[in-house]
Each structure stands twice: as structure tokens, then as C-alpha cells.
Amino acid sequence: MDTQPGPRIGKIVSSNSHIDYVCQVYGPREYDPLPAPDDYAFGSFVAIQADDGRAPAGRLVGVIYNTLLVNPDYGNLGPRLSPRQDLTVFSPDYLSETATLVGVMALGWIDAAGQVSQGAPALAATINAPVRRLSDKEVCDFHRGADGRLRLHYLPLLMAQSDPLIAPLLLTIVDRLRDLFPDQRQRLAVMRNNLAWKQVVRPAG
What we know:
By secondary structure, this protein is α+β, with helices and mostly antiparallel strands. The chain has helices at 84-90, 92-95, 136-143, 155-159, 166-180, 185-204, and strands at residues 8-15, 20-25, 45-51, 56-70, 99-110, 116-118, 130-133.
């Protein structure tokens, strides 16, 4: 099990709601080492550093549920005056307009004392707040209650969202947790079957 803190992948640039954030993935010259595509894959658990304006207030815990590519070249059929390699020298601002954005749905938070809470977080993230992937151990700690049992109190929050990607996201989360909580595989298998059935039946209804 991976116990080291996960790599930083980007920073918060905007939000769609109190729990729905947009993270811009670091590009060339923004951070070293650059995040790999696996670091911000669909269904990856991440931490967003929170701040109450006076001191670090812990971190939000979220999951990546969407990806958007921003490319100023799209639809531009005119001639390019400079080759792309020259733009890195003469017009670096042009290249900075290209970006990979990922949607992050907040599932809970961990306060400065390490106390874990699931559900809509009390604090909101701030612009430019760093985002990093959670290690396997951190994912387990977030999902393990005081009694040591698996808890998924954020499921109603996710299921209330109208985004069509939420259904496959839930299946991805369950599959990930089955690997991390082998003693809960039977319970998670039942949950997965129910979610998969709803995913098939709901569009038909």
C-alpha cells in the first residue's frame, strides 16, 4: 500500500459550487516534477489545502470526476507565423493559454488536528490552493471510521448531483475501495451491483 503523500497535480482556479471545484493541472515550467496523467485520472482522490485566512485549517478531500482540455488553436485555420518551438521563447504567454482542467467534487475534509469528516465541508477552498493526489493510506484513513469500519457518508451528496458522470464515478470509487478494504469486498460488491442496476434502469425510465 502506498503510504507516501501523493504528488501535487495543480491548483484551484475556479468553482461551480461550494463542493464543485476546477483544478488546473500544472504545465511545463509551473512545477517540477510535472504530474503524470495517472496522477489526475478519473476517480482519483485528492486533497485541497484549506485556509481560514489566519493559519492552515486542514484540507478538503475530493475526487476527480471530469476533465476539460483548453486549446486556443482549436478552430484556428489561419497560418501560424511561428513554429511551436519558437513560441516557447518569443511568446510563452500564448502557450500558457493551453491547459488541462479537472473537476473535483469535495467529499469531506480533514481538520488541522487530523479529524476526518465526510459530507459538505464547512470551509471552501481558495483560488490557487494546491491540489495533490492522496496516497492509498490517506484514502483508507478518510474512509475508516473511529470503529475501524468502512464509511461512505458522502454517497448521498454524490448521488444528488445531476452530472451524468456521477454514475460511473461511483462505480470507480467502489472498485477502488474493494482493493483497499479486502475485508469489505462482499458489502462493496452488493453496493456495486445496486449502483450498476440503477445506472442501467434510470436512463430507461
